Structure to design on (78 residues):
């Protein structure tokens, strides 16, 4: 079995309880990049929006992906 040269850590939506949030923040303390593809505003509601993450890890590159954009008529589509 071939192993990757980097480790991936993923936390599913169902695990985002307070304990999951703390685990995610601890992972983000050591991360270089954080990519998320939730609808606009979801990460803020979960308590791990860009400001929170940047306060804990100023070096991190935080980016959001959206198939419909963050504004406009389709922004709220799942």
């Amino acid at each position: 079995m071939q192993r990757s040269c980097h480790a991936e850590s993923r936390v599913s939506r169902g695990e985002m309880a307070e304990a999951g949030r703390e685990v995610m923040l601890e992972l983000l303390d050591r991360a270089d990049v954080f990519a998320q593809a939730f609808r606009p505003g979801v990460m803020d509601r979960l308590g791990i929006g860009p400001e929170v993450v940047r306060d804990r890890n100023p070096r991190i590159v935080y980016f959001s992906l959206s198939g419909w954009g963050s504004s406009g008529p389709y922004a709220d589509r799942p």
